[in-house]
Design brief:
Blueprint: E1 6-14, H1 21-24, H2 44-47, E2 72-75, H3 87-95, E3 99-102, H4 107-115, E4 119-122, H5 125-137, E5 142-146, E6 151-153, E7 159-161, H6 166-174, H7 178-183, H8 186-199
Parallel strand pairs: 1-2, 2-3, 3-4
Antiparallel strand pairs: 1-5, 5-6, 6-7
């Protein structure tokens, strides 16, 4: 997983509440058992003119030239609600998003974002409204997300602080998924196994087949 420290990039405002995981990646778009090729299906129900079509809907934010190559998504409350499918985070990551700014996150979706290198930056509704207006009317829809300082900054210098747990922040800064975080404790795990082997040697005996 690529470490995240600071990102300055185009930000796309999708100011809707309760965007569920089926809106982020409809089940019909999950065709590959390994989760490949999800970027094309991201927001397919809104991004294209009809189900099964790949004709872009020009009104949808990601199809507007102003927000081309967006790597930051700004949205409303309870983003990622619905099913627990990790494909929603995979689709965002494959499209190129590295941060989602929202007033609140579904807990499972937030965890899936962190595990896939996406910063879930939580802010109050007022800050979301201010940022959304700036992205829609400002000269450039650019934001800087600084994970170390937990801030989002506009080109004008206006800044907002976001919330993220210390554990999630550390994992993203180091580029560690849950397995990587566990392996940081390798020495303690091995020490436990060695001590446990001394106490319960029978549990480590090879299984004898008849």
């Amino acid at each position: 997983m690529e470490p995240f420290t600071t990102l300055t990039a185009v930000a796309a405002p999708l100011l809707r509440d309760n965007i569920d995981t089926d809106a982020i990646i409809p089940s019909r778009e999950m065709r590959d058992p390994l989760g490949r090729g999800l970027a094309e299906g991201l927001f397919a129900g809104w991004r294209y003119t009809a189900i099964g079509s790949r004709e872009p809907d020009s009104d949808f934010v990601l199809n507007q030239p102003r927000y081309a190559d967006a790597k930051i998504l700004v949205t409303g409350a309870n983003v990622g609600c619905g099913s627990s499918r990790e494909h929603a985070a995979w689709a965002l990551s494959q499209y190129g998003f590295r941060a989602v700014i929202a007033s609140s996150f579904n807990a499972i979706f937030r965890g899936n974002c962190i595990a896939n290198g996406i910063v879930p930056a939580a802010m109050c509704d007022v800050a979301i409204e201010q940022i959304g207006a700036l992205l829609e009317t400002g000269a450039e829809p650019i934001l800087t997300v600084d994970l170390e300082s937990r801030t989002v900054t506009a080109p004008s210098g206006q800044a907002w602080r976001f919330d993220i747990s210390d554990e999630a922040r550390e994992a993203l800064l180091l580029g560690l998924d849950p397995i990587g975080q566990t392996l940081l404790l390798r020495d303690r795990i091995e020490a436990f196994r060695a001590a446990d082997r001394e106490r319960r040697g029978w549990a480590y005996s090879p299984i004898l087949k008849a």
